[in-house]
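Hi support team,

I've been running sequence recovery on a batch of backbones for a student project. Most finish fine, but this one hangs at about 90% for roughly twenty minutes before it completes. I'm not sure whether the input is malformed or the queue is just slow. I've pasted the structure tokens below so you can try to reproduce it. Let me know if you need the job ID as well.

Thanks,
M.K.
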């Protein structure tokens, strides 16, 4: 460690053996470890016999903690950044402090390692050439449904994280937005004792979860098949027609004509028209 640096260290998502030798070496040598939850990280450090100075860095104090880290770096100290599990700043705290440290001119050194998304993807058997990592959907039902509607026509494999108390609602909304026929891979408790990876149609997913109460427990990665290419192309063409019509016609008239031209569903086109109007800041 020739220069004081911020090390972004991936930690296990379950099995404590899934940590790299380099990560262990860095955690032993840094002056301070900034942890999302010092209790969780303390358990990992004790397991490997590492005595370290810990500070808390989570979503509620990230900007304040960033200033403390800047002070440490300025005084020649090196800092490791870890989240509770997996890679920091990927659906976890860290991105804000990393940006602040980089802007101040200090080195940021990434250490690759565990990621729940990559773990689920590797075991899914998906041959999709591209995927879109979304992370956590909004907690509010209306906002979640709007986000899913915006993703409906994308041809990419869609990767979501979800908490156990929302997984049933999210899967129900996915089936409504994407259709019951798309394939979903449900990966829960990855690398842990009760790891489960199940693949089925979206329309069957809720029943599979309900069949065993334990299946709704733990942290989830959900991988949903993307829209067929033809559907994506048709949706893109319908949106182009709608954009042109909205420049000349009232919203309802534009939707009606666009539906006739593109053979699209009027309800979906109406929702899209509202989004387009919102983006352009015009009234309906």
């Amino acid at each position: 460690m020739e220069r004081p640096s911020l090390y972004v260290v991936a930690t296990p998502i379950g099995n404590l053996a899934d940590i790299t030798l380099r990560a262990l070496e860095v955690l032993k040598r840094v002056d301070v470890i900034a942890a999302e939850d010092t209790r969780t990280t303390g358990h990992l450090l004790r397991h490997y016999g590492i005595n370290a100075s810990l500070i808390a860095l989570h979503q509620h104090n990230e900007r304040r903690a960033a200033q403390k880290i800047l002070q440490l770096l300025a005084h020649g100290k090196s800092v490791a950044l870890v989240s509770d599990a997996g890679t920091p700043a990927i659906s976890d705290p860290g991105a804000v402090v990393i940006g602040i440290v980089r802007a101040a001119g200090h080195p940021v050194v990434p250490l690759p390692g565990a990621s729940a998304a990559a773990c689920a993807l590797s075991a899914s058997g998906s041959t999709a050439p591209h995927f879109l990592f979304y992370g956590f959907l909004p907690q509010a039902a209306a906002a979640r449904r709007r986000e899913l509607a915006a993703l409906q026509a994308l041809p990419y494999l869609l990767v979501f994280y979800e908490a156990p108390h929302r997984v049933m609602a999210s899967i129900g909304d996915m089936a409504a937005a994407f259709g019951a026929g798309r394939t979903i891979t449900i990966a829960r408790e990855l690398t842990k004792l009760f790891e489960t990876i199940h693949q089925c149609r979206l329309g069957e997913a809720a029943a599979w979860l309900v069949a065993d109460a334990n299946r709704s427990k733990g942290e989830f990665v959900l991988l949903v098949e993307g829209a067929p290419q033809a559907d994506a192309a048709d949706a893109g063409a319908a949106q182009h027609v709608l954009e042109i019509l909205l420049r000349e016609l009232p919203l309802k008239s534009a939707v009606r004509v666009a539906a006739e031209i593109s053979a699209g569903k009027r309800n979906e086109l109406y929702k899209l028209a509202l989004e387009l109007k919102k983006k352009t800041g015009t009234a309906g």
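--
Follow-up from support: It reproduced on our side and the slowdown came from queue contention, not your input. Residues 131 and 157 are 4 Å apart (CA to CA). No action needed from you.
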